[in-house]
Amino acid sequence: MAWAGDQLWFVNTAFSCLGTRFEGNSIDPRWRPSFVKDLGPGDKCHLNSLALRDGRVRYVTALGETDTVGGWRENKRDGGLLMDVENQEIIIRRLSMPDSPRWYRDKL
Q1: What is the number of other CB atoms lying within 10 angstroms of the CB of residue 55?
Q2: Who has the most CB within 10 Å: 37, 44, 52, 107?
Q3: What mean pLDDT is predicted for residues 63-84?
Q4: What does the longest C-alpha to C-alpha distance in the chain come to?
């Protein structure tokens, strides 16, 4: 999770999305990868981390580019990816279990 402006953003791995806090203990889904067609339970791509750039949520990592429950497990050795949230672009594929991207000193 990370603060972006006045919102606390969460990675919701179980629903393959990013979200912000909603009333009570729930989450408001705000973004999902374009290859995940429907919002619902079932870890489809193992979305696992986010990074900010210029105070906005900008990058995420996932362990697979799949839209089936548990589909990421089939190729977890090198099915991981880094994605740009703003334009839904996959920046790099074939990563081995990527996690915790960071924007630091103008570099990702």
Answers
A1: 10
A2: 44
A3: 96
A4: 38
